[in-house]
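worker-03 picked up job from queue 'complexes'. Input manifest follows; two sequence lines, order preserved.
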Amino acid sequence: MAKFLIVEARFYAHLNDMLIAGARGALEAAGTYKSLGRATVGVAVIIGGLQVYGGYQQDGGHFGYHAQTAAAGATGGLIGGWVGAEGGAAAGAAIGVWFGGVGVLPGAVIGGFVGGFFGSQAGSSIGSGVVNYYYDQK
Amino acid sequence: MKRLEISLNILHYSIYKTHYNLHLFANKINPFNLIHKLPFQKRRYEELGIDINKEINRAFADKDSGLSVMVAGGVLFGVIFFFLFAITNFLINAINDAASLSAGYFITFGLVSLIACYLFVFKKDKYLVYFKEFESWTKSESRKYAWISFIFIVAVLIMFCVSLGWHR
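worker-03 finished. Artifact:
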């Protein structure tokens, strides 16, 4: 576990208390967003797989249209998530520098998170769209 | 139990390293990096005295709460879930050919993988101790474990796909 040492000089006790509360809050927030990030990625991976399973059942035990759409959507979602996170991190860092300079790291992380989420949605739509297009052409 | 803990931490570390290396590769082709070449952005980086690429790399590499460690945690959770899914699907189909997994099973798999991840990897950031240990690996050791982890993940994916169509 990461350990943090907060040093304070208690001249103005009420101000110190507020500053300590702020620092504690920031550390707790970092822990929360890490868990949130893990949960988002984990749930996205699991939902993709379960959609393939559902599609396979819908196709009556064959890797037919529904299973293919779900598999392409899940794969597209993973790739899109990665691409989105890379783009989001670069854009987030570029925006973050305008917030006193301390915003570079949070900007990159938040940008990566947001970009990953939207990239995953777009990638999933593109993946299933490709399968739909293929079936429309048939 | 200790063995399981070490194995899960090796898997977690390998996913983290792979994701970070993918990021380093993406740096070479990421069109969004062109933003950093805009004159006003460049001026700002100079004012702050920062190397923006290094800062972005830090956002990914940070072991405490970086992007790669978040992705590694999520993927580990998913891999355990699908491992349990595939094994159970094989067993259930071996007993009853017409059986299929229901929501109850999925919730159980989710809970078991969550508990496993939490107890062996995430609890009190236990993984950081393992990361420190694994960083002292030699290049060949590092490559060996990365391959083992990769093969394990591919095997879980294959097992999952095969289990869908597997009948007694």
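worker-03 released lock.
Chain B touches chain A through 49 residues (CB under 8 Å).
The radius of gyration of chain B is 20 Å.
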